[in-house]
Design a protein that fits this description.
Distance between the termini: 33 Å
Largest sheet: 5 strands, mixed
Number of helices: 3
Strand order of the largest sheet: 5-4-3-7-6
Oligomer: single chain
Number of strands: 7
Low-confidence stretches: none
Length: 164
């Protein structure tokens, strides 16, 4: 059974927009297949093969997004509680190893942009901040959390939590 993702309403909107674009692409690919069929022998028809490959890719992406929309739990991040780190909050932390402060915005996966410190709850730091006890309880101001990142363990102290 697939794991349920927690996403924001912004994520939902982005996924629905992607789905609409893919449905338009599906129509264009169907037309390409029809045109390619007109080129003759399908066994040696590169245009037909390319169009069929594109069709498979589009249908696969549609199925993935539909499954995501069907199984995800959506939260309204505009009403985020600032007593704990959760989607829709901005968490200021102190990196205890380097004595540097960072401010992470916790977002759903479609909004994630690590370069801007917009991190999803599925990233190592996002998981550490939003699931401190393995039951989905977010960190509170003063908590020290550990994130198992690709670069090693990062220990952070939560300094403040505010709405996005």
């Amino acid at each position: 059974m697939a794991e349920t993702r927690i996403l924001t309403f912004t994520d939902k909107k982005k996924l629905e927009e992607q789905l609409a674009a893919l449905n338009e692409e599906k129509k264009r690919v169907a037309e390409e297949i029809q045109v390619a069929r007109g080129f003759g022998d399908l066994s040696e028809n590169a245009e037909y093969d390319a169009a069929k490959a594109k069709e498979a890719e589009v249908y696969g992406n549609i199925a993935r997004i539909e499954a995501e929309l069907r199984t995800a739990t959506f939260v309204d991040d505009s009403v985020a509680d600032t007593t704990t780190a959760t989607l829709g909050t901005v968490v200021r932390v102190l990196d205890m190893e380097y004595d540097e402060e960072d401010e992470y915005t916790l977002v759903g996966f479609t909004e994630a942009d690590p370069g801007k410190l917009f991190i999803s709850n599925e990233s190592p730091i996002g998981m550490a901040l939003t699931d401190t006890d393995g039951k989905g309880t977010g960190a509170k101001v003063g908590d020290i959390v550990e994130a198992n990142t690709p670069g090693g363990i990062v220990r952070m102290k939560v300094l403040s939590i505010r709405k996005r």
